[in-house]
Amino acid sequence: MNPAADGMSQTSCVPAALGPGEKCRADNTLLQRHARTLAGVTAAGELLLVTIDGRDPALSVGATLPEAPEVMKWLGAEDAVGMGSGGDSTLVAEDTLHNRPVDDWGGPLRERPMSSTVVIVEKP
Fold it and tell me: Global pTM?
C-alpha cells in the first residue's frame, strides 16, 4: 500500500481544474480516520483479511490511509492492499457481524447496503 506510488496525493483536486479563488483541500479519504478493509500476505504465505472499525470514538477511531499499511506491517504483512473504506468496511464471519459499519452522509448513522463482497469459503 503506497498512496503516492499509486497516484494518490494529499489533495483532492487538480490545480489546473480549479476555478477562480478555489484552493486544493485535504482529501478526506486520505487524511481523516475512517473504517478500512485491508488484505495482506505474510512472509509465510498466510492471508490476512483485516477490518479496522471507525466512526465511533468510544469504540474505534479508524485509521488514515497512511496509517493502514503500518497496521498491516504490525500484523506481519509483507504485502498489502486497501480494499475499501468507510461504511463499506464490513466483516462477517460465521454469520456474525464483527464490526459496526455505518455511513455518515450528514443524516443519522446507518448501515450501508453492500453491492459487492469478498467471500471466503472452506474448500470441501
Answer: 0.70
